[in-house]
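Thread title: Can someone regenerate the structure for this chain?

I was given the following input by a collaborator and told the matching structure tokens would be attached. They weren't. Posting the sequence so someone can regenerate them.
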Amino acid sequence: MYTFENQSKKKLHVQVSERIKAMIQKGGWRQDDKLPSYRNLVKELNVSLVTVKQAMDLLVAEKVIYGHHGKGMFVLNPVKNSSRQIQTIGLIVYCTNNLLFSSDYLMQMFQGIMLAADKLKADVKLISLKKEGAVSVQSLIDKKIDGVVLLAVNNEKYLKDFVQSSIPVVVADFNNPEIPLDYVVCDNEQSGLNCVNELVSFGHKRIAYMDGWSNDTLVLNEKGTHPEVETSDVLERRNVYKSQMDVLGFSEHIKVLGLDLKKEASYIKDVCDHIVSLKQKPSAIIAYDNNLGCELMKELEKVGLNVPGDISIVAMAGAETNVVGAKTLSYCKMPFIEIGTKSVAILKSRCRSLRNTKAKITYMPGQWVTGNTIADIRK
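Best answer:
Regenerated them for you:
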């Protein structure tokens, strides 16, 4: 909750008008953006309705805002804040700190964010949604946070809370074209093309895809668990596989493994059992990521299917090279460190520009890493 100076020579409604003006400026609001309602401003600024009304009248007189009868107050003359600096970054993660520091890809993005913040001489405050719940925009303002990086946060309702906030926001490792924020993500399309084309170059046509999933850690279902959600990564990786197979004329061989299976502890085994039951097995499988690819290799070996002799395995995304026995998984290495540094660079830029009117998505391409999990079946 915002507080004002009781001893100030300025009248309270003037202080409130300056606070609202700063909110417009810091948030990079554009012309015709709608201001919060009088009721919300009363609650947020802890002043009376009369004071808010007086402040709004003052801003109308200054031609900063204008009113539209029955619809509210809107920005008339937006102002860029060219002098704003980032001193404190709020890093909001979807998971526990334990998972953050034990996951290769999350840790790499964290590393990139910290490296970029260090160059800016900015502090980073780590906030776990899993631990603290949906931290409000106002609480971030109260903590004097200048900009926010949302790391792998996929709850769309929560993201929408930041659309007209006074805090610049960048979302890393998730995107939604319908929500006008800045996003920095893996280039799943290029990665998917690399996977399919690499397998085809070795003679494979019967190429299947092993589906992945994500969970929304801000929601609990009736079982007390976090529901599965089809994030941008899940959709993009599945779709590029299907699209490229169709382009190459292999649509009859399109098969998404695990699409109808529950994503629980038995998922890998269930997928493997399904593969074993097929009369015509795929000659190759593209896994959603390295973790699923490695676990599938282990499970296939248990039932006597050799990789790559019987089935070739590659992964569409990974942070580090993975080895299972004598097998080194072929995969697309994603630039997670660079995603972190790029997120902070965009955040710095956003602090000095007007708010987005549309989503701005920055795609970071990966690099193909060749292992020994692809069989050459060319004749």
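The domain at 88-184+337-364 is CATH 3.40.50.2300 (Rossmann fold).
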